[in-house]
Specification:
alpha/beta; D-Maltodextrin-Binding Protein, domain 2; six-stranded mixed β-sheet; five-stranded mixed β-sheet; 18% strand; globular; binds succinic acid
């Protein structure tokens, strides 16, 4: 009998200490885009890999379409422990670091290969840990792609944007970029863009082909300029406290699952950029304008001076490293 009491007491102590707890670790992954996008598919791949490799130990709940949090709130929620993984666009970390603004500089990267080279190089990798003191840990970069401009009127030359209201993400660089062409930038959540365009509260926006297609922006914008003038990529981010506190037999498995999920999302990103552009073209709802080299050069000339305004905050060395990735 005494032996039984001792055994029960020991079991009780183990449960209290969480040692023998059979409760799986719940990971909430919140994002703002549709499931049929590089980020949506990456999140589902992470869930599949994590749960199959850690059965009973980890449960991943994926919340797409701003169902749980919009990008404005998700990082605060993460620091409070209400969500464990998110992948906001690199333009949405302004409150936590100025360095990531480098990714918003207009006409910085000539293509996605250059973006990949910079992100995987020493400077890009260093940025992953740049917010750790503030409690946020970057797990990796995920691609979406280059941005296009859309508006209620044709945007062939920079003057065409004069006076138009454009929705932007919460980035001062993007605000300066639109001010450079005489437009009025308005910082608004992604979840509101369709309605703002539909009701003509704004005249235009900038986004990737997959976001323009999956959120039906093309249905409420007559004109799209294939400008490739900037980037929307993501930082897959977690709470440093949460990730560093994961059990030793769990974290390496999740690290690997995340690596593979990101590779999966990146593979899809390129395909989606092409196929969603084609779907928009085929819809015949909005016209896609391809700029001539001379027209593009005019946008570059007006927007590129924005770099100088942010060189001090970002660091000229970092900008130079990003530029060098184009070679
Ligand atoms: C996203 O792709 O996560 C949203 C981008 C945006 O806010 O425009």
């Amino acid at each position: 009998m005494r032996k039984l009491v001792t055994l029960l007491a020991a079991a009780g102590m183990m449960v209290a200490a969480g040692v023998a707890s059979a409760e799986p670790i719940t990971i909430k992954f919140s994002h703002v885009v549709a499931e049929n996008t590089p980020k949506g598919k990456m999140a589902l791949k992470f869930k599949e890999l994590a749960e199959s490799r850690l059965p009973g130990k980890v449960t991943v709940e994926v919340y797409p379409n701003s169902q749980l949090f919009g990008d404005g709130k998700v990082l605060e929620a993460m620091l409070l422990g209400d969500v464990q993984i998110a992948a906001p666009s690199l333009s949405k970390f302004n409150k936590y670091t100025k360095k990531l603004q480098v990714f918003d500089l207009p006409f910085l990267f000539k293509d996605m290969e250059a973006v990949e080279k910079f992100q995987q190089g020493p400077d890009g990798q260093k940025l992953l840990a740049s917010m750790e003191k503030k409690g946020l840990l970057g797990l990796g970069y995920l691609h979406n792609g280059l941005k296009q401009l859309s508006a209620s009127r044709e945007l062939r030359n920079p003057e065409d944007a004069d006076g138009l209201k454009f929705r932007i993400q919460t980035s001062d660089v993007l605000a300066a970029q639109f001010e450079a062409v005489g437009a009025v930038p308005l910082k608004k959540p992604f979840s509101e863009v369709f309605l703002l365009l539909q009701t003509k509260a704004i005249d235009g926006q900038e986004n990737t082909w997959s976001n323009i297609y999956s959120k039906k922006f093309f249905e409420v914008q007559e004109h799209i300029t294939a400008s490739n003038h900037g980037l929307i990529d993501y930082l897959v981010v977690t709470s440093a406290e949460f990730w560093n506190g994961l059990p030793a037999d769990v974290r390496p498995v999740l690290d690997q699952a995340m690596k593979e999920a990101i590779a999966h999302g990146n593979m899809i990103a390129e395909e989606k950029a092409n196929s969603d552009r084609k779907r928009i073209e085929d819809s015949g709802v909005s016209t896609i304008l391809t700029l001539s080299d001379a027209e593009r050069a005019k946008w570059v000339a007006v927007m590129k001076p924005v770099w100088d305004k942010f060189a001090e905050e970002i660091g000229q060395d970092l900008i130079d490293a990003a530029v060098a990735s184009n070679n």
